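As a next step, the fold was encoded as tokens, giving this record:
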Amino acid sequence: MINSNIYNYIDILDKAADAAYIRNDVISNNIANDSTPNYKRQDVQFESILQAALATGGDNLDEMVKKVNMNLDDLDSYIYTDRSSLSYRLDGNNVDIDQEEAYLAENQIRYQALVDLMTQEFSRYKTVLS
């Protein structure tokens, strides 16, 4: 990561895009294991970690983002197995293919939005430097 305050938002957007990229792989794996007996769906935990990190920040968004960037390594996502959702199938698998496809579409939109936001930030910097 770049250690300058000018890139604070980009660094957080980068972490969020990384989490979305990982989530895409995890959801694809869930879809691939739709017919595997006793398979439990997995997901990626990131948004709640980011919210908790921002909640410990300052009075405005800039201060919060700056504080989060000081501990950017603590903002890593992790994969967890979702055992909370009940399996409605006799084989113990809790993957709902329709729901997973909706999650995949949502995640792809999220990832594209994050990449677009990073592109816009760099475009602003380029305009200022021109």
Notes: Residues 5-129 form one domain. The two ends are 24 Å apart (CA to CA).
